[in-house]
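Sample pair:
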Amino acid sequence: MTDKNIDSLKEANERIAALEKQCDLLSRISGEVGDIFIANINDGTSTVIKSHGIFLPEEKQVARKYDETWKWYAEKYVHEDDRETLLEAVSLERVERELTDKKAYMVRYRVMENGEMQSYRLMFRHLNDEKDGRFIMSFRSIEEIVHYEREQQEKLEAAYCEAEAARAEYASILSKERHNFEILGSLAGIFSALYYVDLVENTMQKIISRGAFEYRYEEKEPASEALKRFDTYFVAPEHRAITRTFTDLSTICERIPGWDDICQDYMSPEGKWSRCHFIPIRRDEEGRLTAMLMAIRSITSEVKAIESQDNIIEALAIPYANIYGVDGETGDAVSYRMGQTRYDMYGRKFHAGPFEAAMQDYIDNDVIPADRGLFKNVRTIEGVNGVLSEKKTYSVTYRVERDGREKYFRCQFVKPNPDISDFVVGFKDVDEEMRVQAEQEEILKNAYEAAEAASKAKTDFLFNMSHDIRTPMNAIMGFMELLGSSIDDRETALSYIKKIRTSNEVLMSIINNVLEMARIESGKETLDEELFNANGFAGSLVSMFEGQLHEKKLSFECNIDIEHENIYADKTKLREIILNLISNAIKYTPSGGFVRATITEHPCERAGYSIFRTVIEDTGIGMSKEFLPHIFDEFSRERNATLSRVTGTGLGMPIVKRLVELMHGTVKVESELGKGTKFTIELPHRVETAADDTEKTEKENLINAEILRGRRILLAEDNDLNAEIAISFLDMDGMSVERAEDGIICVDMLEKHEAGYYDLILMDIQMPNMDGYKATQHIRRMADPLKANIPIVAMTANAFEEDKQNAYAAGMNGHLAKPVDPEKIRETIGRLLTGK
């Protein structure tokens, strides 16, 4: 830009400034045209300051009373429709009230002037700031105001046209300097503030200044001084030292030796970021900078985007060994991090060339062929931007071959800013992660298959149970029908009864096994050890199977070689273990076969204990090698009852294993199809060195039938069939029975009779109105000690150990589980009545 062009530009701007001052002066003069009066509220007078004789003739233009003057004026000039309104509006009280909070008070009215209707504006103002009671009244014709404003508008329009012409001339001058014009044209849309700085004249001229970037300075103030105060308006305290150095015009020529601009970022006191540019636009003949643009724009969004990108890169940097930023326009990759391991060849490839070429090279030469298709969406810049347009991140997990084996890697693509095409790509080794995941999936798969197998086993169990339960039930129902038709044939009837009893035992065995397994799984099973004679115990077990052995024509051998006959053990659970094993041996051994039981004693490391080894072996059908590992699984049976013609729940062996483990023992099984099975059980038992005469003790505990005869029993039972059975058993032993249908009736019957009338109470637990526990508690609180201490025996279907403990806790003396055994009833009643 030449000096001549610059001078023309300055002349145009000076003319525009002169026109603006003239317009401002005309505006001020227009407010003073018209008649002016000063009124005094304190004394109620008015004085003419300026008058053209329009409102008052000369003889009236003297100080006179304010109210009289207005009455005369209203009658003389004001239109009759406006008189009352005007007089009220100009009263001293009204004017004083209106000017209390206002700078000016205006009233409009109409007058008849030269036979024509004219509108006037009356303006009231305080004479001075002290508000001493004096105010100015100025009159102005509205038509005159309109005419005056129209003239001013025409003058302003003319000035505007002249200014536009000057600006056009200025634009023409700029167009001659193509380089500067392009700078201003492009920067005007980018920057929020543009200032022209003349370094020779030391002046600043505003070109654009918007919003928060409006920089206030005096027009005549030197640019060097104005820029010294720049930081006080826009810059946060911690950044002011930097911006002061940047805006120092004394060093600007040395800092801008060429045509490239310089810039400085800073933060405002409000925490927003901006960037200030100094752009050179003119140099003298010696090349020294003489004029430049100061341009400012907000970069807060860019800083946030960079911070977001940095955060993403920082987040990726934790797990990713190699991270690259890719320019979405040029395709160049910039390394943010490069791993040092030998597996980081992809890092060197991406670092060496453009993204697309490096990616294709990596896919073709490093990724195994089976996984190359996984990269179909991210081979190109366009592809990456496509997948990242729908989501913020995109990853590919793939395999490469390293050291003769496949390793898993993951490639992650992230777009920090959705408004630009740049993105970040990271690579990391996920081999261990994927293998752990594969192991977990394998565990889940195995668990699922196990659950499926367990579900199938339970389904099979229910199918088998349905058949196994129906088999003895069908026999019981069938033989009962036959019994009814053969009641007169004693021998036939007795055979039917025997078969019904056998079928009932089978049914009870099935039900007991299911309940026993449920108790074991719930963790409620505990040991109740007692001293007993091992030889006698073994002999009693053998005698239980004599009928079955004889019926199936099986040979049975029992060998006992022990040093200590008296041992401590849970007799009931031990009996259940042995019974299950011998029963299975008998069931699965065909007629003519052989069953052997051998019990031997061996030393134990624990003082006072011995290891008792029990071996049960048979020549039965045996088991396959495939089934043998599952023999202790719940509900498992190699052959169902129909095929093998042997009933069972598939719970006998799991019960044996759980009970053996409960006793801290071991169980081992050996079997072969068609050759038989061998079970070996080893259990530690505490031994008694000073043996008790167990047989003598048992004989002493035998109940004499005469003790029971004539005893009166109170039976609390709500079920009619159960009551009938119990009464029949007690009648056979010569006892008399009175029945109570629930707990309340039982308590009431005991209270009504004298003490000693009843010898013992058989108490059901689950009864309506009052259960057996509450009835017992009521009885134990009776005032009569004989009644309160009467023996009470629970006779209930609640047959578990905790049920027995609950009965004792409620105050009962004994517990009988249904279905009741007549012998156990006799033994329990006799023991309580004799105190044994």
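The radius of gyration is 58 Å.
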